[in-house]
Amino acid sequence: MFENIRLSFQGIWSHKMRSFLTMLGIIIGIAAIIAIVSTIQGTNEQIKENLIGSGENTVEVSLYQGEWEYEMEYSGIPEGVPLIADSVMQEIRDIEHVENVSSYLSRQDYNGVYYLNTGLSGGYVVGVDQSYFDTCNYIMRSGRGFCQSDYTEYRKVAILDANSSDALFQGEDPVGKTVEIQKEPYTVVGVVTKAKVFEPVINSIEDYYTYSQESAGSVYIPNTTWPTIYQYDEPQNVVVRVDSTDNMTAVGKSCADILNAYLSPKDDTIKYKAKDLLEQAQQIQELSSSTNTMLIWIAGISLIVGGIGVMNIMLVSVTERTQEIGLKKAIGARKGKILGQFLTEAAVLTSLGGILGVLAGTVLAQVISYITTTPVAISIPAAIISVLFSMAIGIVFGVFPSYKAANLNPIDALRHE
Question: Model-level pTM?
Answer without folding.
Answer: 0.60
